[in-house]
Here is the input.
Amino acid sequence: MIVGVIGSGTMGSGIAQVAATSGCEVKLFDTKQEALDRSKQALEKILSRLIEKGRIDQAEKTRIQGNISYVDSLKDLKDADLTIEAIIENLDIKKKVFSELETYVSENTIIASNTSSLSIASIASSLKKPERCIGIHFFNPAPLMKLVEVIPAVQTSTQVTDKVVSIIKDWKKIVALAKDTPGFIVNRVARPFYGEALRIYEEGLADVATIDWSLKTLGGFRMGPFELMDFIGNDINYTVTETVFKAFYYDPRYKPSFTQKRLSEAGYLGRKSGKGYYEYGENVIKQSPKEDKVLAQYIFDRVLVMLINEAADALFWNIASAEDIDIAMTKGVNYPKGLLTWADEKGMDWCVNMLDNLYNEYHEDRYRCSPILRKMVRENRTFFNKKLVADN
Ligand SMILES: NC(=O)c1ccc[n+]([C@@H]2O[C@H](COP(=O)([O-])OP(=O)(O)OC[C@H]3O[C@@H](n4cnc5c(N)ncnc54)[C@H](O)[C@@H]3O)[C@@H](O)[C@H]2O)c1
Here is the structure.
């Protein structure tokens, strides 16, 4: 199969590596020669490291590299069966590239976008045959992260969706099918991990080190929210939140935080700028958490229940199946447990009571409980745990 990848930056390079490893012939295109050179060098380094670690041998490295050609014209993608675009996150530019691409490729070529935040329907509308357009959303780094969200637009044909799901599975990835709505699954459901942590901090209930410590110790998250925001970059993380907030017609659940906006404006972007919520570099002593068990439990419960509410609401609105919502969070952002599984463990009563307590305290729409959680309580049900249902 011939795969065309448009844009050889972070994501395009990773996607090209995944497809080439699976035996596809890849044409990787970028408008900038430096970007193509950088991508080629980066792959050389990655594959050499895999040889050092004993994961692949020289022959495998040669095979993967031989499967990728670096091209400087969009026309060179003309024989592709599937193209995946990973260029700058700008709707007008993506649409322009898509309509030009359609003049070169065959009738049956599938034209996909790796966009994180734009609507697939709007991108598809730039094509004469929009039914061939679909979202294929990889996570960074693409070769390591198992999850791929596949997002059919209203225009997408079921044949195209089925074909793409089967290709991505052949690439040894786990597929979560998502509706074409802001943030798809992961970037929507993960919002409270940052948002509620920031809110707790802004209320002065705890400092960032204590909040991070609470979620890592009690929740088993690999990084606390502030460590993770510093890792992602406060500029990028803020922009995703703001985009989701606007796209949901200013639903207060997704309201961005002034704390993060100011850090971003100040250039305190996190690890990449040497300072964010924490300071980085040699001789920096990391803040220590206040190891107060009662406070830590409150912080963890509050963030967790907001995450559960978001996951439950995504199910309520048919964004994805319960299985896919849980897989998306464990395989796309390495959560220690799926959120709906977590809801089952905590109990539906616990979830609803916790949310109602928050709502009663603040009287903000942000804390409204998803109708599906109330329904589960009423009907004495769980999302997955059939044994519990049987015991009842
Ligand atoms: N970085 C992430 O974590 C991540 C994760 C999932 C999805 N995405 C999405 O993937 C896409 C790419 O993100 P990235 O982080 O790889 O960006 P990037 O800046 O690393 O790379 C973008 C590349 O596209 C090239 N480019 C720009 N305009 C072009 C055009 N008209 N034709 C061909 N090439 C062009 C640039 O030269 C650059 O090399 C975006 O839509 C982004 O939302 C990013």
